[in-house]
Amino acid sequence: MRNHHYALGAALLLTLALPWTLAAAADLNAPINMQAVQLQPQEQNGIRYLEGGIGQDEANALRKTPGYDLHVELSAGPSGQFQSGAAVEIQNAQGKSLLSVQDVGPLLYVQLPPGQYKVVGQAEGTTVQQQVTVNGKAPATVSLNWR
């Protein structure tokens, strides 16, 4: 009987995680329903950014948008389910806040000049952070995960 409960629990976890896993592995060449996309470029302190990615069409549209040097991906749990509703702050090498946004995610794309940055995310009462180098040649990716 106990093994049955473990199998049932594992099946339930797989069922809950499957849509997120499939969303992460989706084909970026698939057609995008632009009516499902709500992306609006924004600016703060002279720094342009895009945020969103809720739904597969919006996530794919954002991933295909060129010109953003820093890609921040927000996730939760060991399976990396998309996380939205987080607060994200980007600081320069001297610790000065350059961008501070609330209720973002699961994707945040930022235009930054080459340099060293710290990305700090707050969600679920927990703060996570990561250092990143933007080189101006290829987008840098930061994955913030709340476990």
Sum up the overall morphology in one term.
Answer: globular
Number of strands: 10
What is the multimeric organization of the chains shown? single chain
Structural class: alpha+beta
Rg result: 17 Å
- Second rung of CATH, namely the architecture: Sandwich
- Give the % helix: 10-25%
Q: Regarding CATH, which class? A: Mainly Beta
Main sheet, how many strands, which sense, barrel? 6 strands, mixed
Q: Termini separation (Å)?
A: 30 Å
Q: Classify the beta-strand content into a percent band.
A: 35-45%
Q: Given the structure, what is the number of helices?
A: 2
Query: What order do the helices and strands follow?
Result: HEEHEEEEEEEE
CATH topology: Immunoglobulin-like
Describe the structure.
This protein has a single domain, classed as Immunoglobulin-like. The chain is built from two helices and ten strands; from the N terminus they run H-E-E-H-E-E-E-E-E-E-E-E. The chain has helices at 2-24, 56-63; strands at residues 42-44, 47-52, 70-76, 81-82, 86-92, 97-104, 107-110, 115-123, 126-134, 140-146. The radius of gyration is 17 Å and the shape is globular. It is an alpha+beta fold. The strands form two sheets. Strands 1, 2, 3, 4, 7 and 10 form a six-stranded mixed β-sheet that branches. A hairpin with a 2-residue loop joins strand 8 and strand 9 (126-134). The two termini are 30 Å apart.
